[in-house]
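# nightly structure sweep
# worker-07 picked up a monomer target from the shared queue
# config: single-sequence mode, recycle default, output format = structure tokens
# input follows
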Amino acid sequence: MRLGLAANRLHHQDENAALFRWLRACEPGIRELGLGLHAVGRTFDAIAAAGMLRGFAPLKRYPYGREGGLMKLVAEVVGLDGEQRTLDGAIYLIDPVDPSSIFPEAVALKRQCVIHGKPFLSTEASTRDWIEIERMHAGLAPDPGADVFYAFESQTLALIAHDARKATMIEFVDRHFDALSRFARRVGTGTTGQRLNELAWSRGWPQDTPWVHRCNSGPLGGDAQIADLVLEGRCQRAVFFEDPHVARQHEADIQLLERAVTTVTDRAVCITSPAVAERWLTAVALRAAVRPTHG
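# output follows
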């Protein structure tokens, strides 16, 4: 498996930056998985200077961003010249106030990951969570350091879907209703939240209790309300099924939620495609089978 890797300057400027916190937590898992990391120039240089992943052959250096490194990652997420130039997803640790985070190649990297059902990991928490997901699928022993990501009974989950993805979200929740019901609280924007509540009531959830706490609809500020929960540490995970093919009138609100997630990079996990969400919950079940106390 191979992932593109890039990090804005904020996330590798000192030893406590997000890139290095992730590597310290997950380097053993990265090595166990033999994970190919195709790192844009400055990110690669920062890893080398920190003495991390030393001697790890699957770590590859790409050109600097200004020389097209990020553009190459976009093309390889789409796929070029067979498997050797096809990436399985991308890690892009984003500084929400760095202008480069909204450059066309940065936006395209996420969009192509969503279109092709590949992971787009934009926070430190998401990268740590994803490594544990892949470890579970590889049949490795659970990492106690990842238990925090499986403590659903103390967490809030946001469930959000654009119009073209609402049916997919309903089907996803229906398949995994019991696992998702373990979360202490669920929140969603208007129509999606209502449809999920109707599903829950049809499955026997108490009629006088909403399964999802409904915020406003997206165009009326629901994304902003959930963004505030994320910033306050009152929402730890978002499953956000996006439609990358349709321009949205409330695009700024959607970006606000995405920026909130990356602002609290060490605390917020975001999943942006149904395929990745399915893989996550399969890993949850695999982990529960061998570590039931922690989910």
